[in-house]
Amino acid sequence: DTAVSQTPKYLVTQMGNDKSIKCEQNLGHDTMYWYKQDSKKFLKIMFSYNNKELIINETVPNRFSPKSPDKAHLNLHINSLELGDSAVYFCASSHLSSLGDGGYTFGSGTRLTVV
Amino acid sequence: RKEVEQDPGPFNVPEGATVAFNCTYSNSASQSFFWYRQDCRKEPKLLMSVYSSGNEDGRFTAQLNRASQYISLLIRDSKLSDSATYLCVANPGKLIFGQGTELSVKP
User: Fold this and answer.
1) For a Cys-Cys bond, which of A39, B1, B17, B44 suits B38, CB 3.0-4.6 Å?
2) pLDDT band (50, 70, 90) for residue B42
């Protein structure tokens, strides 16, 4: 039973399209995150939600819009996709109060390729 | 300057070797620290936390020097299965990842 699951696993799409990535966690965590890992393997935080409330919003183009319908789900919608958006997007979850103890649980990633 | 900096490697070592990775962080407000491991085309997974007094988990030893803002990971008796990218992580309220150090252990 997967703890943090993302769909789709792979996504190939044309420039200018709009796409969504979904994430669900069944760990009972109260906080969820989106990270982007680029071609240089640098893993950079994009957004974080705690109990459906946005708590971290890094410098990300406003074409990226996260949505958290409940604390077990965090989706990422991307408008007008660009070539530079090609990357692996990881969802993660944690208990905010125990972040100092054990870090995050990551999903298996969504490999986005914009052509 | 990146918030967490690591030597990207790759480190190519023979089985049985001892290898050390170093990392520096810039945010002195960082409260906790971790090493994560990431296998090729997989998600990062927590390897171990890093405590001020230094800590050991089997063949792995992690150390933290808050004054120098420096973190290290020592792997003894390297195994083929240790081949992966090792990510240094600092927590100033959110997890900030280094670029990762690639390790390749050869027979």
Assistant:
1) B44
2) very high
